[in-house]
Amino acid sequence: MHIELLYWEGCPSHPQALADLREAMRELGLDPRSIEVRRIDTDEQAVRARFAGSPTIRIDGADVRDPGEEPYGLTCRIYNRRDGRISPTPDPADLREALRAAMSARAGRTR
Amino acid sequence: MTAIGEQAPHFALPDTDGAIHEPGGAPATVVVFTCNHCPYALAWHERLMAVAHDYDGQGVRMLAINPNDAERYPRDSTEAMAARVRAGDFDGVPYLRDESQEVAHAYDAKTTPDVFLLDAQGVLRYRGAPDTDHDDPAQNAAHLRAALDAVLAGREPDPAQTPPVGCSIKWRAAG
Questions:
Q1: B 147-166: CB under 8 A from A
Q2: Chain A: residues touching B (Cβ < 8 Å)
Q3: Average pLDDT over residues B50-70
Q4: How many domains does chain B have?
């Protein structure tokens, strides 16, 4: 499973997002050392990486939360917690759900 | 950079209707640098508006200033600001445009949000985050409220300064 976290230094949320992602992976028996952490520094890199804001987390290429029509660029990304609160990081429950979905998809492909 | 206890920079900035607002004329003025698209600014927004509401009866003013480069970040355009005002997001708090970014530079503002509290003489008495955790509404902008209570009672806020937390201000490219 390819898990990547893309971040921009201008937004202070990536350490929390990375900690939440590592914790979710540990809970599901995955190795958090496999996370690929990528820093995005320029608008050009943001477009090339389809970076809709910091942090962006993808599992096998799929964003843990669909960014919809968000433009690519150097900005902080807006997430919503499951209770509706605005947050700079994904809800940990959404991370676990996305990881489980990716694990199920992989298991289905190997049957 | 203005230190705690020094005179804060004066400014005159337009709101989304073009009316000009200046700090002062109140026992305390809260100057908040904020914007439309930063999750930290949005997470703290209701808490800050609650402060404006709760201290309005004591004559406290709040001025919200958007300093971000709207060319690179169109969601911080004056039109987008006006849409939020029309939607009632600011509950009577003037939402000002710092087009030149001179005011943000003069205050050495770092993030959205970044909160500055001025006393009746325009002296900077508090600077920093509204409270300790953007993710916990129960914090209720406790730093700012404590600082306001101190200033209104003629005391020095403690703490007088906390690190601002949020999205970096989107400065215009040099040149």
A1: 165-166
A2: 10-13, 43, 73, 75-79, 85-88
A3: 97
A4: 1
